[in-house]
Amino acid sequence: MAGNATGAARGGGDDRPQRRLRADAQRNIDALLEAAKTAFGRSGVDAPAKEIADLAGVGVGTLYRHFPQRSDLIKAVFQREVDACADAAPALAAAHRPVEALARWLDRYTEFLATKRGLASALHSGDPAYDALPGYFMQRLGPALGSLLEAAAAAGEIRADVSAKDLLYAVSNLCLPPSDEGIGYSRRMVALLVDGLRHGAAAVGSSS
Q1: For the chain, how long is the longest CA-to-CA vector?
Q2: 112-141: average pLDDT
Q3: pTM above 0.85, yes or no
Q4: CA dihedral 18, 19, 24, 25 (to 10 degrees)
Q5: Do 104 and 206 have their domain in common?
Q6: Which of 68, 85, 110 is the last residue of a domain?
């Protein structure tokens, strides 16, 4: 806010450099969040700050300027991944038939859960800094999945008695693979779940 006011007071000649600085800062933030996601997946949430900064191609000072506390960075990574998953729903719905959009979104959600496992030690630590994140998770992902479920059920492609909350938790449980398995195992289990949703729709239709 203050930066905008200063730029306006100085006139258009100074406003363009201010916009470039803001764009640079946003690129740094995006790079840091992507780097932190990678580092957390490799080393957990205690990954060294230098590792994250090096992956992002910035200095450690830039990391601390944008995210003074480790909890700030962890929350930002979590919310960024939740937002990306939620925002994928309308794009998939526009590009695919309802049940295919649902299956693709659940695959995207499975990827998100793989990222979330790297954050689990912090998210379940009892630190009040993370208290709002479960609500944020459901607030963003519940409606996204709900819209896909409603469309697929209305098209007669899946059974209609599954809620978004039920499915979010069911997939989350399926994505706890044995220690010697990775995301490929989770994807196979989720694909079986989607097949079950389709089979249920066929069974209901044949009995009516």
Answers
A1: 73
A2: 88
A3: no
A4: 70
A5: yes
A6: 68
